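hey m, so remember when u said the tokens were messed up on ur end? i reran from scratch. heres the input so u can diff it against urs
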Amino acid sequence: METPEALRIAEERGLDLIEIAPTARPPVTKIMDFGKFKYEEEKKERQQKTKQKEVELKNIRIGFTTGRHDLELKAKQTEGFLTEGNKVRIDLLLRGRQKALREFAYGKFGEFLDMIHNKEFEMEIKRTPQGFITIIKPASGNKK
């Protein structure tokens, strides 16, 4: 239908001509009340926001001298965060003379990461002046 004809029909009915898909060829329009159209669009946006889950970045901090059992507990806690769909930032902090044993600390960090299942690295293990850091996220098949 031509634009002038559609405008004439809309005026006769006391409604508005609303462009729905301007990028389509030819553009798609509707004859309806503009206020009702705006209300429906806002309603759709509100529904999408309620369905959307916001991903949080959780922090887990381990130390150079953290015991095996404590590491297992923290690994279990990390897996819980991942099953909720959150990302987890893991820090291994080194203090004072511990910084001289970076290779040993790196091994301990890797051992801790091996305890965590269903993970994907968002940021690979990175060396910082304070120790090591990484960010993991749920594996592709494990999202809620």
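this time it looks ok to me. The chain has two domains: 3-51, 57-142. if urs says something different then somethings off w ur setup not the seq
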